[in-house]
């Protein structure tokens, strides 16, 4: 549920007259799709809502049936009609879309390769061959002259599939077997396969309806994996499988019966323990098992409690635990492996009111802490013997930094990733002893005119209506004047405590080089400024997310970056809810809005516990079976608050197989907008009939939707090339 997008222009003045002249709008003469209305009354708490488009909801059985029934055919007809209208309304931009697409993919290195990662006698990496849409997953032995082994050939495996998504990949401790997950529907229901890496043989073992990854016990023949409830797609069982047996013989070792929790299985960095984690928004619980005894008994670390969250890792004779116990911004504690309950927890990094503790990486001689202060991520290096405690220094005004792929305990070298709005994604190795570092790789931008010196980034603070200071990360091409005439794309997410990082995007250059300003609003509901930032943007404070975004938009106008005639907004998934809310609250403030896979039918979705994600998100949105939450949710739910008034131009994207936000939410929303809106502005929806929440699976195909998105905005600005 997250994403980002961008912004431009040089020729701006001609546009207002173009916008006001309806005869020049290519879509004005087109007949818009009209969805049939079948009123359905939905009554809760003595309040009745009438949903004219409830009929658009199909079950998985209906979608998967070989022959569509009448209702399914009606839905397909409507979605296809919207796609046909989209094609006609945007036909005049096809040349621009093609140019944008070619620009975007042209900047991507076609034969790229990841930085190799060492593990258990091998280096592992992925690489792309020229023209390949899918990666090759490879390894080499750690010896001079070792030959490459292609474990999985993505282009060959994906051949003939409209969608081919890879899940997790894990190699057995003896390096002989590979477990990997595949999803060919885009529903995030993976089948796990096993490959003998010595012979290349695909084993008969096949595990269906899984979360996508398998975790090996140390015996090299036993794996643990998650299965999903076939209707809600909740990961609710942990299952044990022995290589060479049928899935029907597998043993359920844990079932999560509380439908507000999900579960997963993993392994500690030390490879000493297997972990089962159960979690909901505000509570977690872990079980551990000695990885050498896969048939043993699992032990609970600390029984679940409301509002108690923790994650664990292992080092020597202690578990190290990140927790919010008596620590709103989280802290690090440790506990002996044989005394794991919370009364035995001892602080390692105490709680601080002004620092949010994000996580840790454990080494033989060092503890590495990932922290966030003043909204920016930091990497802190602490020597276990107490002789050193320092932060790695970064210079950009806004940036992203995080540790990555540190699988070896016995090393003084830390690997981390770094990016900023002007700096492409970079991988460094940092010597924690002498503080020297080496750049291993920086993503190449295949464009002779590109230079980081061509762009300026800023980090500003907007003031919300209640006085709260909202961080804003901004990038634009040098030479752009703050004269109020620039088109600007404002992006945000603002849910689940997910922080939106100010990272580089080569795709964004297509907007920046045409004069757009791009800004990220780090609004409440994320966790950029600590735990309170999240707490004040959820449940009965959710509207802060929406008003923060609006206030940032007003701030950018006041600062002369843009005006309402050139201001665009973008958000996806829960950020699509944000788009729907700000469209209802301040429709005149935006020239165009892009809502990607938008969560817009909040009340009906949260009332239906058969829909994926509903039950374990009550702590995020509230449970509308409670009248207080119902009334509050209804007051901002985008679908429930569409009115007969003018709206700006809107582009909606969705996927027919989306398991996170079902396709019928955006479909119903656009139908209701068409029914009630009083303007002639462009309203279009792109429904990909072959994909789900994340879009196309190939590395290039997905950029066709992005090219459409850019063309949508540029066309509104009068830019044709």
UniProtKB/TrEMBL annotation:
Keywords: Hydrolase, Protease, Serine protease
UniProt signal peptide: none
A Pfam short name: Peptidase_S9
InterPro entries assigned: AB_hydrolase_fold (IPR029058), Pept_S9A_N (IPR023302), Peptidase_S9_cat (IPR001375), Peptidase_S9A (IPR002470), Serine_Peptidase_S9A (IPR051543)
Keyword Nucleus: no
Domain (Peptidase S9A N-terminal) ranges: 36-442
Record has Protease as a keyword: yes
Start and end residues of each Peptidase S9 prolyl oligopeptidase catalytic domain: 503-715
Similarity field: Belongs to the peptidase S9A family.
Name of protein: S9 family peptidase
Organism: Hwangdonia seohaensis
């Amino acid at each position: 549920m997250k994403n980002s997008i961008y912004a431009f222009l040089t020729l701006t003045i001609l546009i207002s007259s173009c916008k006001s002249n309806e005869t020049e709008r290519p879509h004005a003469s087109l007949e818009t799709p009209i969805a049939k209305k079948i009123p359905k009354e939905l009554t809760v708490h003595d309040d009745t809502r009438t949903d004219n488009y409830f009929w658009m909801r199909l079950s998985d059985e209906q979608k998967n049936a070989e022959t569509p029934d009448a209702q399914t055919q009606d839905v397909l007809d409507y979605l296809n009609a919207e796609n046909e209208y989209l094609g006609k309304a945007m036909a005049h931009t096809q040349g621009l879309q093609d140019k944008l697409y070619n620009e975007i993919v042209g900047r991507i290195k076609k034969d790229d390769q990841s930085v190799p990662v060492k593990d258990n006698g091998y280096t592992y990496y992925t690489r792309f061959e020229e023209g390949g849409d899918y990666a090759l997953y490879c390894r080499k032995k750690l010896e001079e002259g070792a030959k490459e082994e292609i474990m999985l050939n993505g282009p060959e495996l994906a051949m003939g599939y409209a969608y081919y998504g890879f899940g997790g990949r894990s190699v057995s401790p003896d390096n002989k077997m590979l477990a990997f997950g595949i999803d060919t529907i885009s529903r995030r229901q993976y089948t796990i396969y096993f490959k003998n890496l010595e012979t290349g043989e695909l084993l008969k073992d096949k595990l269906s309806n899984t979360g996508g990854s398998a975790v090996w016990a140390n015996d090299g023949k036993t794996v643990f994996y998650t299965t999903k409830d076939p209707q809600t797609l909740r990961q609710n069982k942990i299952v044990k499988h022995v290589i060479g047996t049928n899935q029907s013989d597998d043993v359920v070792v844990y079932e999560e019966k509380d439908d507000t929790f999900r579960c997963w299985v993993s392994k500690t960095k030390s490879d000493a323990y297997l972990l089962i984690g159960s979690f909901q928004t505000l509570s977690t619980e872990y079980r551990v098992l000695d990885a050498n005894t896969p048939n043993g008994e699992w032990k609970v670390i600390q029984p679940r409690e409301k509002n108690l969250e923790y994650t664990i890792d292992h080092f020597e004779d202690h578990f190290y635990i990140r927790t919010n116990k008596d620590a709103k911004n989280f802290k690090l504690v440790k506990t002996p492996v044989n005394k794991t309950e919370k009364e035995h927890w001892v602080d390692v990094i105490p709680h601080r009111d002004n620092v949010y503790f994000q996580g840790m990486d454990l080494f033989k001689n060092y503890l590495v802490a990932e922290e966030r202060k003043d909204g920016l991520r930091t990497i802190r290096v602490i020597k276990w013997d107490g002789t050193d405690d320092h932060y790695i220094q970064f210079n950009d005004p806004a940036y992203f930094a995080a540790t990555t792929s540190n699988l070896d305990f016995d090393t003084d070298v830390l690997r981390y990733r770094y990016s900023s709005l002007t700096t492409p994604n970079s991988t460094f190795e940092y010597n924690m002893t002498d503080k020297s570092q080496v750049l291993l790789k920086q993503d190449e931008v295949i464009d002779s005119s590109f230079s980081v010196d061509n762009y300026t980034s800023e980090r500003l603070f907007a003031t919300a209506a209640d006085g709260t200071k909202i961080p804003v990360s901004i990038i634009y091409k040098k030479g752009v004047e703050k004269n109020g005439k620039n088109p600007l794309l404002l992006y945000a997410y603002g849910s689940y405590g997910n922080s939106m990082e100010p990272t580089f995007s080569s795709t964004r250059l297509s907007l920046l080089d045409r004069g757009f300003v791009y800004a990220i609003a780090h609004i409440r509901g994320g966790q950029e400024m600590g735990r309170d930032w999240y707490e004040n943007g959820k449940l009965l404070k959710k509207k802060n997310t929406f008003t923060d975004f609006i206030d940032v938009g007003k701030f950018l106008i006041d600062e002369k970056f843009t005006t309402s005639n050139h201001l665009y907004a973008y958000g996806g998934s829960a950020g699509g809810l944000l788009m729907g809310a700000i469209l209802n609250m301040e429709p005149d403030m935006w020239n165009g809005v892009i809502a990607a896979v938008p969560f817009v039918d909040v009340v009906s979705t949260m009332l239906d516990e058969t829909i994926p994600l509903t039950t374990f998100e009550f702590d995020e949105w509230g449970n509308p079976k409670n009248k207080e939450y119902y009334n509050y949710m209804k007051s901002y739910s985008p679908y429930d608050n569409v009115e007969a008034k003018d709206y700006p131009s809107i582009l909606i994207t969705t996927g027919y197989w989306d398991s996170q936000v079902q396709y019928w939410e955006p479909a119903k929303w656009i139908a209701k907008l068409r029914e009630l809106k009083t303007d002639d502005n462009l309203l279009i929806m792109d429904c990909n009939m072959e994909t789900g929440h994340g879009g196309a699976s190939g590395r290039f195909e997905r950029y066709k939707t992005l090219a459409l998105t850019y063309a949508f905005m540029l066309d509104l600005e009068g830019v044709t090339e």
